[in-house]
Amino acid sequence: MSILDDIVSATAQRVAREKAAFGDVHAHPSSRPFMFEHVLRGTEMAFICEVKKASPSKGVIAEDFPYIDIARAYADAGAAAISVLTEPEFFLGADCYLTEIRNAVDIPILRKDFIVDPFQILQSAALGVDAILLICAILSPAEIAEYIGIADRLGLSCLVEAHNEAEVKTAITAGARIIGVNNRDLRTFEVDIDNSIRLRTLAPDDTIFVSESGIQTAEDVALLRKNGVNAALIGETLMRAPDKKAALRTLSGNPL
């Protein structure tokens, strides 16, 4: 089994425990429907900045983890949205990080987790998020289409994550309006930023196209922008930067 398989298995067990403990989740539609995709369309290159304590490939990234301060720094530096890891076992995330950040900043929030059950979509809406992550590598085409439909009824945007040509085609067929290409192979953890550039040509022009993982320099961002990528999701590079506001401004090509 790969690490991804382990994460999915652990997530399914976590969801089963939460469903047993909490029963049905009553979620109201978002008060600002589809704000996530609205802001991603609003700039030439949007930045989704990640709040992440750890990852399976890198271990603990941030021993000191003032997550609210980090989120505020991102917002102050011009981030379009914030991605918050909530997966607890492999990424050391927590739902409370998300809810506290939601109360601290006004920009849209993406819940970064491994969604394997409709319960988690309702849960995400109840937590007040603006968007959720759907991963093609762990969901069937029918599940992706079903989950997009559930999210649409709640006013939540879906970032549908793909890694290869087949998964991009699956995302398009399922009705994805936002496709994120992960430059990191979730099974081997190898990173290739050119993956986004190769796969951009497969998606319709009106699809919001997001490049994820391995983005480290302003030159990387400029290359993505030149090749029609609409947004960059950046995690480790910013999480390791002592001055996150300055780091984001440097990546954007506007260091001052």
Structural commentary:
With 256 residues, the chain is of the alpha/beta class. Helices cover 42% and strands 17% of the residues. The protein has eleven helices and ten strands. Helix 6 links the parallel strand 6 and strand 7. The mean pLDDT is 93.
Helix content: 40-55%
Order of helices and strands: HHEEEHEHEHEHEHEHEHEHH
Q: What amount of the residues lies in strands?
A: 15-25%
**Average pLDDT over all residues:** 93
Walk across the major sheet and give the strand order. Answer: 1-4-5-6-7-8-9-10
Shape: globular
Overall structural class, as computed from helix and strand content, comes to: alpha/beta
User: Unreliable stretches, pLDDT < 50, 5 or more residues?
Assistant: none
Distance between the termini: 47 Å
Can you count the beta strands?
10
Note the main sheet: 8 strands, parallel, barrel
Backbone CA Rg:
17 Å
Q: Count of helical segments? A: 11
Main features:
42% helix, alpha/beta, globular, 8-stranded parallel beta barrel, two-stranded antiparallel ribbon, 256 residues
Please write out the topology:
Layout: H1 3-22, H2 35-40, E1 46-51, E2 54-55, E3 59-60, H3 67-76, E4 81-85, H4 95-104, E5 109-112, H5 118-127, E6 131-135, H6 141-154, E7 157-162, H7 165-174, E8 178-182, H8 194-200, E9 208-212, H9 218-226, E10 231-234, H10 236-239, H11 244-251
Parallel strand pairs: 1-4, 1-10, 4-5, 5-6, 6-7, 7-8, 8-9, 9-10
Antiparallel strand pairs: 2-3
Helix pairs in contact: 3-4, 5-6, 6-7
